[in-house]
Design goal:
This protein is 28% helix and 20% strand.
Length: 408
């Protein structure tokens, strides 16, 4: 059977996704990136998908599929492993002449999802005659050429390690990979290559979804999302999963937003691996504490303005007895203060800084979902930041200091 390749323009068009598990978590981000109006039908969702619902990026119908759900859809993605349920969805789509992708049985689908890689404005999609493994091999070869500049139109990097994957591939180990602050192209070259070799990927909520869309079909994806102040999988369970899979001889990538060791609990996971005798490697990532302010036009240091910057976690209120932050000392500092995970406690944080001497006129900014297409920024003062941030939601970075007003 010969396929007719086609690129779909989905912006503003309704796309139906049936299923709320790991497969949907991999496929939905690419649909959202294309601007599709995604409607997801499933009795339950993974934490990662729930966070997209909470952010208003997709519509969720918390129930089982009904044939009328296909009405008005331009495309249907079936992300369930129940063949009978999947067949009912594809039958409804076929009756309405809507193309349908099936995760459970590509031969019963009317459309296939290719192996995809993205490099700036270039998107490469490979089908390889319906052989998903061959498609991934070809896709990865093309991606290597895009990354190292050997394909026409690419820029050759000045200094590239000869074989960064060789250090970590070999099975039976864990690699902690920082995925960067949100833009999928801000993961390091080394991190992306190791991700392409993974047998198991354990991913947090803040991981760029398009990276998951590029995983090999046979990769086990474990959604270890930690939604702020909501349901979370216990850290002990995450430790157990990565150690168990690695002990079975698999290459496990623990994929985290930002950097694994900047409030990412990577240290706890490295300790768990060490105690179990599992080799662990760390591939650093771009931290949102620096990247989010940067893309919002805020340098965290500037000559003659700030000779220091301090990054703190705001997930514990200043008056909480478990807090390890010396907030009064921070109030006396003249440098830049960057607060991660601090929206919930921002009123208490601002009040504490003001009470211990920081001027209410100190410039302040809030950057939500930095480096992504949905980034929002507000510039204000410390005295007004609580009111200015009322419509913001996590993930967001709060920056306090004179650097906020340096660039126009």
């Amino acid at each position: 059977m010969n396929l007719y390749p086609l690129a779909l323009r989905l912006e503003g068009r309704r796309v139906l996704v049936v299923g709320g598990g790991a497969v949907a978590s991999r496929r939905v981000p690419a649909l959202l990136d294309a601007g599709a109006r995604v409607v997801l039908v499933s009795p339950s969702l993974t934490p990662a998908l729930r966070s997209l619902v909470d952010a208003g990026r997709l519509h969720w119908e918390p129930r089982r599929f009904e044939a009328s759900d296909v009405d008005g859809a331009w495309l249907v993605q079936v992300a369930v492993d129940d063949r009978f349920a999947a067949a009912a969805v594809s039958a409804a789509a076929l009756e309405r002449r809507v193309f349908c992708v099936r995760a459970d049985d590509r031969h019963e689908a009317t459309a296939w999802t290719p192996a995809v890689t993205r490099h700036g404005p270039v998107t490469v999609a490979v089908t390889a005659g319906g052989d998903p493994r061959r498609a991934v091999v070809i896709r990865d070869a093309i991606r290597e050429g895009l990354l190292d500049g050997t394909l026409p139109g690419c820029v050759q990097p000045a200094d590239r390690p000869s074989s960064p994957v060789a250090e970590v591939v070999g099975g039976g180990r864990v690699v902690l990979v920082g995925a960067g602050p949100g833009d999928p192209e801000l993961i390091t070259v080394k991190g992306r290559r190791v991700l392409a070799e993974a047998d198991v990927v354990v991913a947090d909520r803040l991981v760029p979804g398009l990276l998951l869309d590029e995983l090999r079909p046979e990769v086990e994806l474990v959604d270890a999302s930690k939604i702020p102040y909501g349901p979370a999988r216990a850290q002990e369970e995450i430790n157990r999963i990565i150690v168990e899979r690695a002990s079975a001889g698999l290459l496990v990538v623990r994929l985290k937003g930002g950097d694994p060791y900047v409030f990412g609990r990577g240290g706890e996971e490295a300790i768990a691996c060490a105690e179990a005798g599992v080799p662990v490697t760390v591939i650093p990532g771009v931290s949102s504490s620096i990247a989010a302010p940067a893309v919002a036009g805020i340098p965290v240091t500037h000559r003659g303005v700030a000779h220091e910057f301090t990054v703190v976690s705001g997930h514990v209120a200043p008056d909480d007895p478990t807090s390890l932050v010396d907030w009064p000392a921070l109030a006396r500092m003249r440098g830049t203060l960057v607060v991660l995970m601090g929206l919930k406690n921002l009123p208490a944080i601002a009040a504490t800084l003001l009470a211990h001497g920081r001027s209410p006129d100190t410039p302040a900014a809030v950057v939500q979902e930095g480096t992504t297409a949905t980034q929002r920024t507000v510039r204000t003062t410390l005295g007004s930041v609580v009111e200015a941030a009322q419509s913001f939601r996590p993930p967001a970075i709060v920056v306090i200091g004179e650097v906020v007003g340096i660039l126009p």
